[in-house]
């Protein structure tokens, strides 16, 4: 992983956001909801990202909002990953109707449009907090990974070493936990990162259409106010640019980490085979590789 | 043929799941939303409309859960989605009927164009691996991490305004009556261009990435090497051998990703005040218009399933293996 610049960049950026999530509320120069007389000011030394129509400091809103974004991403990612491992690995390992049923279940959840589903559930809940939003996203977003894990488990199930373990009389649980799971680690990790990205975008989208933690801030809430107060027609670009860039940066960081994992699993995807110094060229390498071995 | 039948069975299962979710979710709503509406309308509602709303929310306390469920199914089959709170006294079905053509037009056309453009570009980038084309990848990664709606906001800020060719909101010139004359069609195209481009820019990058990865994987397979060894022209190897096979997972990926894409594109409608289902969803959330929310969810699910079915037919045409019996 250390030799992979993409993954390293992604991890560093990710660490930065997690750090902000922890210390952001202390670093924020103002209370994000506090009104002041500097109405709709462009960025200045005292208000780095400018102010809103009520004189609230946008820099503080973005800083404080990081915690909610990271929290929802992490919780939803965890819930969805646990569910996808349970459903996906069982669907792949169990043969017969149980496996088929679980696989159909994950396909159903995959095809139903996720965002409208999350919207109708969260807007019907008695209360919306960061935790309930994270749980709803986590409970609806596991299907993609379950599908990938099922396919991977299916291909591992018939490998020789698994057959050998079975012939040795090892229990099903031991085979799943100690023979199959270690070979799924990369897939699970990449699924987790992907789900975190999806959860972050979903939370921000929900906040943007007005479903969010009551009284709390996240990047989507900032955009919600910018949109509803017509920031665009007033030329207040500073109102929506920082939050959007923060989303894009966090998203890029997560995607980069995922590329690193993908390239680790599938060496064909690596851009340059710098380790060997031979430039892979279609039509020649397979022959060369066979002769040298 | 058994392949299509199997898929049809699966779609029926999904429709049933969506309807069932729709049946149970409103039971979590605190209080009595119907009573609140009746109070708000001061008795202007017919008893029939009130009755239909009670069935929709499962507030019929005298009935058992099972009979509530069946009367709900019966109501859906009659096309009765209840009464919209925000657009009172229009039924939800009529409200959705107004929005659906706009959404299908905008989202449908741009998604399909995005898929073809992205797949073509991805094939090219994947084939020319290790050249300048690779530098496209960080750019597309960045673009695909931006939420659709934010890109829409930026587009409005940069490209619209007084004197600009692009209108900032709506689907046609205010004052025009929707019909099929050239003035109206021209106005529709002009209004649809910017939202369409926004969706296109953000959806195309996903297809580029997945097609590129498939191309890279496929292009070191033996049959591609053989095609090279036969001395076939580069173009032919790329299109007829590598891309032809890399396309298959991308088409099935298209079907699976539709649900995600539609969610994102609905947000673009909100930003551009485009009068489709996305804008209605936004209004429904704001006004706590539960019947409209549920109706939109159901209609979007059905549309996505229909699109999935079309993608299945395309896959059937592309992959001879699915046509083999047994």
TrEMBL record, chain A:
This is Peptide ABC transporter permease. Signal peptide: none annotated. InterPro entries: BP-dependent_transpt_permease, MetI-like, MetI-like_sf, OppC_N. The chain crosses the membrane at residues 7-28, 69-93, 105-125, 131-149, 184-209, 237-261. Belongs to the binding-protein-dependent transport system permease family. It holds the Pfam family BPD_transp_1. It is found in: Cell membrane. It is a multi-pass membrane protein. Keywords: Cell membrane, Membrane, Transmembrane, Transmembrane helix, Transport. It comes from the Bacteria. Residues 70-258 form the ABC transmembrane type-1 domain.
From TrEMBL, chain B:
It comes from the Bacteria. Keywords: Membrane, Transmembrane, Transmembrane helix, Transport. SUPFAM superfamilies: MetI-like. Residues 100-311 form the ABC transmembrane type-1 domain. It is a multi-pass membrane protein. This is Peptide ABC transporter permease. The chain crosses the membrane at residues 7-25, 102-127, 148-172, 192-210, 246-272, 292-318. It is found in: Cell membrane; Membrane. The keyword Transport applies. Gene3D superfamilies: MetI-like (1.10.3720.10). Belongs to the binding-protein-dependent transport system permease family. InterPro entries: MetI-like, MetI-like_sf. PANTHER family: OLIGOPEPTIDE TRANSPORT SYSTEM PERMEASE PROTEIN. The keyword Oxidoreductase does not apply. Its main location: membrane. The lineage of its organism: Bacteria, Bacillati, Actinomycetota, Actinomycetes, Pseudonocardiales.
